[in-house]
């Protein structure tokens, strides 16, 4: 009984359809002979309506085509941008030939989620097929990356087609019809062109990966990553090849992976662009902007599971649209304003991608029509970019090699300069050694020891001990500002002036005055501190003069106080007409004198780790305290302790100045 009732209803429905003389109103019939053996664009013969909520039964669709206002595509391939509406299309095909024909109706655009085909035959038979990106690939009548529906047309038969489409991506419906043999010719060419594209990209990826392992330039690995994500995986999704080649039975994986690959494609643009154009040096502020945009891409990827597919797809279109113009501006700036040659290939290559990408995005937005250019421009642009980028990376190798050669040449020049400087240092060291006493005078009643530790190979400190008579000596301690070769040369000049002075000067003050008159104006920007001492063992007197130099210390092994002796006096080289006052102090047996340069204080101003003491005492205060604790030792032991302390400090910290000291004892 149930089967009988169903049969009656179907008969009534078929009768109703047969009674309707025009199930697809306002459209012209497509004679099959008009295709002339080629795939035929149906946009001249399409009428359509949009419906929310979606409908899926042929009865509802047929009734709506009779009751709703219809639109005619008028020869323009339907393109509605990003929309959540369902669209139903209708067209009629008539086999005006005397032969049986097998036809394939197909949609070239592969990003439609739900595609429903209905074919209403004159016999009342209804053929139906439902396929799309969210359905298994096996639902499609033919192994084609778009959507296909096969129909057999009898001689003189007329068939009415209803096609419903809905998607969460941009809506584009390039409906075509072809005889089966012609459809296979079309798909063969389509497969060949896709193979050429992916072959080019694949070969260039392997080539650049090989180059990376040769030169170890990270620009290549970022470019390979960019090619793998954007030019291969994203294009596989964009061209509808993921279900064809890899996931025929995983429609949800194919659907959800598209936006992920979209944002991964945008993400890989940034490290590739930063390294390819060397933005760290050529445009550091733009590099920061790129890093910020890179973070936005990462955030979008993290939001994919929580926001709708449609919203994120629209966000990707807008982001890529803005990024295209920004990257074009940056590449022009780096290539032609900063004059970085490899960026020119980036600019031209990216310009090709931008033309194709913008055409594709504007097509997806519904701004541009669907045609051969907007359908293939992005893929063609990517192919050109891959080739131009390869030239750019080759040019980058040339630039890197030239830069490497320049650096090596500069390094060789610096090496030669260093060798020459080292030779100068050796000469300066020999010069300085000649200025310092090789042997100290041996006078009965005097013990003399000298310590000299330059900061570098040569220094600016100078000392001299000269025997002027059997029981008299003159000591000079000086410190030229600065270090190294210039200071050593000036110390040599001081030695000459001092030797000349001893011939006629009869006291430390006169010695300093004569040296000052000899050197003022010669030292230019350098100044000199000095102290002179005259020791007379016959009169047991010490006469001293000072030119801005640290004080003398006078003490005894068994004494309780350290006498600080420092007459006033200006630095040598400051002014020509300068007089230096002299002070005379009595000497007795066991008196000790310590003459030094201020580098000595630095070794007591720091702790054993090289850090400055936190108390308010200066290096002089700390040294005086240390000297008070150790002055009761023997002459030789005291000298050894001073030298040992300096050596130990220099193991943990570098000296800030040259260190020179003279220790004298009256025996």
Return Rg in Å.
48 Å
CATH superfamily of the largest domain: PPM-type phosphatase domain
The CATH class of the largest domain = Alpha Beta
Q: Considering DSSP H and I runs of 4 or more, what fraction of the residues is helical?
A: 40-55%
What is the subunit arrangement here? single chain
Shape: rod-shaped
Cα-to-Cα separation, first versus last residue: 143 Å
CATH topology of the largest domain: Phosphatase 2c, domain 1
> What kind of sheet is the major sheet?
7 strands, mixed
Low-confidence stretches: 1-20
So how many helices?
A: 16
**Overall mean confidence score, pLDDT:** 82
Question: What is the annotated CATH architecture of the largest domain?
Answer: 4-Layer Sandwich
Overall number of strands: 23
Number of domains: 3
Estimate the strand proportion: 15-25%
Briefly note the structural class of the backbone. Answer: alpha+beta
